[in-house]
Automatic annotation (TrEMBL):
It comes from the Bacteria. The keyword Acetylation does not apply. This is Spore cortex biosynthesis protein YabQ. The chain crosses the membrane at residues 6-27, 39-63, 69-87, 135-157. Keywords: Membrane, Transmembrane, Transmembrane helix. The keyword Transmembrane helix applies. Pfam families: Spore_YabQ. InterPro entries: YabQ (IPR019074).
């Protein structure tokens, strides 16, 4: 490995150390800060470190064909230490401002969606429902009125015919109906006795 490649490797590993510091802080703020079950936390931590390790190895592979030496680890630690000493507060402020901006943007978009789309749609649907119910009530009223107009002459006709019928025939008919009622009552009593 030439001196230039070694110098490039050192500088890139210092930068990767700073990247690791920022990634750890971002991960802690977004994922670790939440209350997860223990096994989910273990899976999240494992995936985080596997991804970071693969990223460092990929960068190392691009620079010096994946040769791992002790000074590379020292460069990583040096980069992480520099980040902690010099850039930690700045990055924390930028991260928090970014998160708050994303949250405010999300809340604004949600409020705008409700105000411009969902609430007008609800109002329109309520209006349509009210109009449909009014139309339906009107149609039902008209139909009942028309039915009343249609069957009222038949009622009058039936009453007129009833008045024209002789009283003796009506009495005989009602007696026959009484006879049928007695038979029905007798059969019902017989069935109830059989059932018990």
């Amino acid at each position: 490995m030439s001196l230039t490649v070694q110098l490039q490797t050192m500088l890139v590993m210092v930068a990767m150390g700073g990247w690791l510091g920022m990634a750890i802080d971002t991960y802690s703020r977004l994922i670790r800060g939440r209350k997860w079950k223990q096994w989910i936390t273990v899976i999240n931590d494992s995936l985080f470190w596997i991804i970071q390790g693969l990223l460092v190895f990929y960068i190392l592979l691009q620079i010096n064909e994946g040769e791992m030496r002790f000074y590379i680890l020292l460069a990583l630690l040096c980069g992480y230490s520099c980040y902690r000493a010099l850039l930690y507060r700045i990055y924390q402020n930028i991260l928090e401002a970014t998160i708050q901006a994303i949250i405010k943007t999300y809340k604004f978009c949600k409020a705008a969606l409700f105000m411009l789309v969902i609430n007008p749609t609800k109002g329109l649907l309520k209006l349509l429902y009210t109009v449909c119910m009014m139309i339906l009530s009107f149609l039902i009223t008209v139909i009942f009125f028309l039915l009343k107009v249609l069957y009222t002459p038949f009622i009058w006709l039936g009453r007129g015919i009833w008045r024209l019928l002789p009283k003796e025939k009506l009495d005989k008919f009602s007696n026959k109906l009484g006879f049928f009622k007695k038979i029905k009552n007798y059969i019902m009593r017989w069935f109830t006795k059989k059932g018990s």
